[in-house]
Design goal:
The protein has 467 residues and is of the alpha/beta class. Helix content is 39%, strand content 22%. The chain has 15 helices and 20 strands.
Length: 467
């Protein structure tokens, strides 16, 4: 069994304890990950703090190092993809795509300048806005897109001049640890430390006095714990939390034309995405045709081990999430919902649950009101646009949403009425390194990506000059 290491101060470190990593396609333990101790976390923060003193000074060196990291991701994609699929469950094609996406993401981040803005200037004075790094950033990652979401935090933080201690999810630590090994040959020691462990390690990070900001992507429940912990000493925090995104399909659509986009945005990677379509509201005039188009696509999906190149969708990542999907589906059935296709765990090893279309359901049922984070889509008819906007907004979540229509002006007007961080028209919540991304309500706070994301990772400093 291959050995994996913590990456601390540019060195590979073993741990006194390990924890099992399960292949969700087989339910078998295929590797052990190092379980970082409190003392090793302290060492990681200490080395990150020391590295920060030089790293913050030379922007050209930072850009060169990050560019080399993008290159090594591309050259190592084949090596990493199989490991990635084994621990996460996504298909081998999706694993390669995410690694390529991560390299491209670094390139796009490097295309941004760190601006110095002149806020006010006249004959007697000049006031400039500068962006200075914060210090050591603590990053805590989820299991659904472990590489791209890690890179989306690493690249801008390091570009600004911060250093980082990053903890991947205990469900998917291995590819991130191996990526850290590759980056350790490029970046100065201590600039990027990657440590694995469970919830206890996450709590230690959020409470650590040597960490100047915490950035977290994950569930609302855990995000609240992070917020409480960081508030104790006013550490900065960015929270990208869950969503219950509504998509609204107006009557002027041809269901055949948009069904692929709707289906892919709902079921891509088994619906295990915070920005997936979780609720679909369809105008009653085209409701049955839309449902039928989605059913056809669900029934064609090939479900299986992601290492098989013929497979379209792999398993749900972990048993806890599978059990939640089953629980919400069974609750919907008890409340009169109709399961058009899917609806049951496959009778085979692995956490397999097929794409499931649910009808005869409405607001007030848990599958509609809560985030399922899995391959089950409730499809709900509506007749009145004002009413459906109100229903879409009747949630504590506010990550994304979308309106689908041939009338773009009408679509923009309706999308602007959605209470969410990102509202799409004929697309659903694009995630891009230059486009700001953040949630409303309990879907989090703080912005990621673009210059707005750089600001979240910077101390804004005004320099005022008398002429």
């Amino acid at each position: 069994m291959k050995e994996f290491y913590l990456i601390i101060g540019g060195d590979k470190k073993t741990a006194e304890r390990t924890f099992a990593v399960i292949n969700p396609a087989t339910e078998s333990v295929f590797a052990q990950a190092p379980d970082c101790s409190r003392e090793q976390l302290d060492l990681a923060v200490e080395t990150a703090s020391k590295a920060y003193q030089d790293w913050k000074i030379d922007e050209a060196a930072r850009r060169s190092g990050l560019s080399a990291c993008a290159d090594v991701l591309r050259s190592s994609a084949e090596e990493l993809a199989e490991l990635f699929t084994q621990e996460q469950g996504k298909t081998i094609q999706q694993s390669k795509s995410e690694l390529d996406w991560a390299a491209w993401w670094i390139d796009k981040v490097l295309s941004m300048e760190i601006p110095v803005e002149v806020v006010l200037e006249n004959d007697t004075e000049r006031h400039e806005m500068h962006r200075k790094p914060l210090g050591v950033i603590g990053a805590i990652m989820p299991w659904n897109y472990p590489i791209i979401l890690a890179i989306s935090k690493i690249a801008p933080a390091l570009l600004v001049g911060n250093t980082m201690v990053l903890k991947p999810s205990p469900y998917t630590p291995l590819t991130t640890l191996r990526m850290g090994e590759l980056f350790a040959d490029i970046l100065p020691p201590g600039v990027l430390n990657i440590i694995s462990g469970g919830d206890e390690l996450g709590a230690w990070i959020t409470n650590h006095s040597g960490i100047h900001k915490v950035t977290f992507t994950g569930s609302v429940a855990t995000g609240k714990k992070v917020a409480r912990s960081t508030a104790s000493n006013l550490r900065r925090v960015t929270l990208e939390l869950g969503g219950n995104d509504a998509a609204i399909v107006l009557a002027d659509n041809d269901p055949k034309e948009i069904a692929d986009d709707i289906f892919n945005n709902a079921f891509g990677q088994n619906g295990q995405a915070c920005i997936a379509i979780k609720r679909l509201y369809v105008h009653e005039d085209i409701y049955y045709e839309m449902v039928d188009e989605l059913r056809k696509r669900a029934e064609k999906v090939v479900l299986g081990d992601g290492l098989d190149p013929e497979v379209d969708i792999g398993p749900i990542n972990n048993l806890m999430q599978l059990e939640r999907v089953i629980e919400l589906t069974e609750d919907a059935k008890k409340n009169g919902a109709e399961i058009l296709t899917g609806g049951k765990r496959l009778d085979r090893p692995g956490y397999f649950f097929p794409p499931t279309i649910v009808t005869s359901i409405s607001d007030g049922v848990r599958l509609v009101d809560e985030e399922q984070f899995g391959p089950v889509l409730p499809v709900i008819p509506f007749s009145d646009e004002d009413d459906v906007i109100e229903r879409a907004n009747a949630t504590d979540f506010g990550l994304g949403g979308s309106v689908w229509t041939k009338d773009l002006e009408r679509g923009v007007d309706l999308a602007a009425r959605l209470d969410c961080g990102t509202a799409g028209v004929n697309q659903h919540t694009d995630f891009h390194p230059i486009i700001p991304f953040g949630g409303a309500k309990q879907s989090g706070y703080g912005m990621q990506n673009g210059i707005w994301g750089l600001d979240e990772l910077s101390q804004l400093q005004v320099i005022s000059i008398s002429k």
